[in-house]
From TrEMBL:
Transmembrane segments: none annotated. Residues 1-10 have a biased composition (Basic and acidic residues). The lineage of its organism: Eukaryota, Metazoa, Chordata, Craniata, Vertebrata. Keywords: Disulfide bond, Glycoprotein, Golgi apparatus, Membrane, Signal-anchor, Transferase, Transmembrane, Transmembrane helix. One of its GO terms (cellular component) is Golgi membrane. This is Sulfotransferase. It comes from Odontophorus gujanensis.
Amino acid sequence: APARRPRDLPEPPGGSAPGPARPGSKRLPQAIVVGVKKGGTRAVLEFIRVHPDVRALGTEPHFFDRNYDRGLEWYRSLMPRTLDSQITVEKTPSYFVTKEAPRRIFNMSRDTKLIVVVRNPVTRAISDYTQTLSKKPDIPTFEGLSFRNRSLGLVDTSWNAIRIGMYAVHLQSWLQYFPLSQIHFVSGEKLITDPAGEMGKVQDFLGIRRVITDKHFYFNKTKGFPCLKKTESNSSPRCLGKSKGRTHVQIDPEVIEQLRDFYRPYNIKFYETVGQDFRWE
């Protein structure tokens, strides 16, 4: 009997197709890394795509925030080809703070698995500011942007760098559409100190075997975070690009203390909601 063609693969026109058809087909993602900016999303994507059962889109498609009007077929066309046994993954960290994203993703598939990489919101904000500063050296100081009134300790929650770290607030929008069992939270800190442990949990969440283990990582002292040793398809070690691991701007410790106070109630609410203590206090 002829070999069964994988489902979703179009039949070659006119019987004998020239050359073999490319294996697999483009599928909408079953898992999306939805956040958060400067949390460690690129690392999670680079680490998970080492897995033979995962195929990932390398660039951020921004479909559910900026390109939604292009339609699902456009979105699908961007995806890598997969076999039936493989999972398609994409990452766009701005989805987490996009009001419409949960509903839009739910409308694509209510079974979508969501991954959120979180990190101490104060450190995250400083990292965010550092990134912006490298592109626009003329912006105001971190302190100036963080407060509406510093002496009164009034934090400016309209500044994106501050707003993103209010995880408990953003999470509420997602919980209106998805149960917590479909959302996996990765600790950005543990991703650095124990990448194999954190990636083990990600693989469990995705329902794939634990292939990525500590054998895959080594710690790069210059960068200050783990890099991949050689992978099956790639004989040389791989670290994240030059833009990763920038030296953060020095911030007045008093400012940091005020921001820690600001975030504390949000952090506690977040820990209680997800049932996980990220130890940011």
